[in-house]
Amino acid sequence: MSESVCPRRVEGSQTSLRRAVRTGSASRLLAAVLAAVGALALTACASDGPSPPAPAAPTSQAPASGAARLVDPGEFAAVIAEPDRVTVNVHVPFEGDIPGTDLSIPFDQITAQAGWLPANRDTGLAIYCRSGPMSATAAETLRDLGYTDVVELRGGMRAWQADGRELVGI
Hints:
The protein has 2 domains: 1-51; 69-162, Oxidized Rhodanese, domain 1, CATH 3.40.250.10. It is built from 5 helices and 5 strands. The protein is globular and about 35 Å long. Helices cover 34% and strands 10% of the residues. Residues 1-6 and 8-65 have low confidence and may be disordered. Strand 4, helix 4 and strand 5 form a beta-alpha-beta unit. The longest helix has 18 residues, at 26-43. By secondary structure, the chain is an alpha/beta fold. It has helices spanning 13-23, 26-43, 73-80, 133-145, 156-162, and strands at 69-71, 86-89, 103-104, 125-128, 150-153. The protein has a 5-stranded parallel sheet. Residues 1-46 form the signal peptide.
């Protein structure tokens, strides 16, 4: 029994849910939850839909010194602005994105969802979670998959926000 976790999110459903929770309306909350579940069901990774491509074999060895280069929010902002870098939110459950995030793949689903990642293992990746532990696990997995250029946000989204930067989608 294998459960697939789709690396896509439904935008807007969280807004309705938060609005219902703020107003305290049980019927609005139930309607928002049902709308969110329905939207997820419509966009979920269906078994008859396209599957992510199979992961390619590693093209080079990952650095032996560590799984990723840890950087502060200022440097992370510069790194994710690089045009060819892929930014991945590995935090679960979803608690927002750093602007410019390309993918959301749960930290514990990196191997299973590797088909969504660049086939070229030398492509730069920037990863983050909420506070650090999930992205550290993801960095190790990415290293094991052969990715050679992984940058990790030290302190995650908490450090990003403490540095005065915004999250989107929340």
